[in-house]
Amino acid sequence: MRIVRYTVNGEARYGALDAGDGIRSLTAAPFDGLVYGEERHRLSEVELLAPCEPSKIVGIGLNYRDHAGELGLELPDEPMLFLMPDTAVIGPGGTIRCPEMSERVDYEGELGIVVGRPAFRIRLEDAADYIFGYTCFNDVTARDLQVRDTQFTRSKGFDTFAPIGPWIVTDIDPGALDIETYLNGARKQCSNTRQLVFDPFYLVYFISWVMTLQPGDVIASGTPAGIGPMQPGDRVEVRIQGVGSLINDVGAWGEAPAGP
Description:
The longest helix has 9 residues, at 200-208. This protein is mostly beta strands. Strands 1, 2, 3, 4, 5, 6, 7, 8, 11, 12, 14 and 17 form a 12-stranded mixed β-sheet that branches. Strands 9-20-19-15-16 form a 5-stranded mixed β-sheet, with no helix packed on it. It has helices spanning 65-71, 143-148, 153-157, 200-208; strands at 2-8, 11-17, 22-26, 36-42, 47-48, 57-61, 80-84, 89-90, 95-98, 105-107, 109-115, 131-138, 141-142, 162-169, 178-183, 186-192, 218-220, 228-230, 235-240, 244-252.
């Protein structure tokens, strides 16, 4: 099943997307079960938003073997965690804004793990029960600031630096999904979730022993090899097998959004 969040007539709501791209409205967030409303829309009739409203985004550093290899770094012994604020979130079609204080802003295509129920000190064997589904995520990074700072709050935390979407897929196995990132139509990242050092189930388990994960929270599971810079005027796309395609334009603060 694909779960979307969208606006229609100026109101944001959740919905379930059928195979023919028709949306059936939901009366509330889907994490406690699906309660259908009476409204139906076509996907072309609505504006898609980020498919959830996370209270926090937990990022994972250096979690692909091929990415560690391209950087010449050893694999971590345990997940490397950092946080991104909810104010960084934008949806599909939103514009990533390059801040004036950075001279290099990079794409990082990632599998996003969406939490479905409160997770606090859970058992590893129960972790799958706490995952609602999966989505595409772009962990936008001000690379020069990341190098200068001792932690990642500034380089990962700018408004618009956490594109999520286009929807949440609830019924896929995350173990062997192709993941790609395209910049202006040219493929820049190409890997598979088999390359993950720590899989989604271990990440949910591990993080739950650090902080409580809430329904709608997102874990950005790490990026594969091939990271690189974006410029205003570019278009970036994250594609994940079985999930979908997240497309965002790149602009600068003070500019109008790029056209189609």
